[in-house]
Specification:
single chain; 30% strand
């Protein structure tokens, strides 16, 4: 799964959650936006924030944005497995409210 922050209409960044059926990885992809613009867009979307070179995504909000309306029967189980894998790596807050994710920047590509 990828959370993208890309340039949107009127030069205002927009947030999109894509590849929602691929629950084997999760990262935050920044298009031609600054970290500050990405942080602002994520906060405005209610999906999280950027701190330094790390993204922090709200677990419940991300699930709500990512879960397909007609999801495969095992989607919820695969979501839970992804979160548990992240927890095992230390990438989930103690209360489970936030997932720490890797940033990929198009500007650095």
């Amino acid at each position: 799964m990828i959370v993208e922050v890309v340039g949107g209409a009127d030069e205002r960044p927009e947030v999109r959650v894509v590849e929602t059926d691929d629950l084997t990885s999760l990262h935050l992809a920044l298009g031609q936006v600054t970290d500050e613009e990405a942080d602002e867009a994520l906060r405005a979307a209610g999906l999280g924030r950027v701190e330094g070179d790390t993204g922090h995504l709200d677990t419940a909000a991300l699930r709500a944005a990512a879960e397909p309306a007609e999801s495969p029967a095992d989607w919820g189980e695969r979501w839970d497995a992804m979160v548990e894998h992240a927890r095992g790596k230390g990438w989930v807050t103690d209360d489970g409210a936030s997932l720490q994710v890797h940033l990929e920047s198009a500007a650095g590509a």
